[in-house]
Known about the structure:
- 0% of the residues lie in helices and 48% in strands.
- It is built from no helices and 16 strands.
Amino acid sequence: LQAISSSRIRVAWRDNSAKEGGYEVFRNGVLIDTTDANATELPSPDSGLSSDTTYSYQVRAIKDFGGSVGKIYSEFSEVKSATTYFVVNVSVSGSGTGTVSPCSSGTCEYPNGTTVNITATPSGGSTFDGWSGGCSGTGACAATGNTSVTASFSSGEVTLNVQVGSASGDPDIF
Length: 174
């Protein structure tokens, strides 16, 4: 088994049967597909799965003799599990500008069991004000599972109002 995204797992097995007619593949105890003889994986990854979720699989060989004999099944394989990737949704807000890495604004996927340190860097003239959502503070945001975060940047512009007094006086700055 191999998780290949937040919604798909590649399911493969070793063909230990000599005269099977096909295989039945089960996810969490429910039949999801039947393959032809000599297959060693599903023709396409198991899809439509939820992110950051563990799924268990078993396979068994099947032989259909038809008539009164009917189908004969092998023992189930050992249960194997895989966990889909987790999803990090990143957005940027505020009057300033900046970059977020390694996942810029949008949705990114990461293998389960990893920690992703997301950093925000203000552009010239802007300030990083901090995280909201799944993280807080102004340091790196450590994501280990499904989360949504927003990096807030403010403009570093300062408005300066200058009022010029009479020709004989000094300007007042306020």
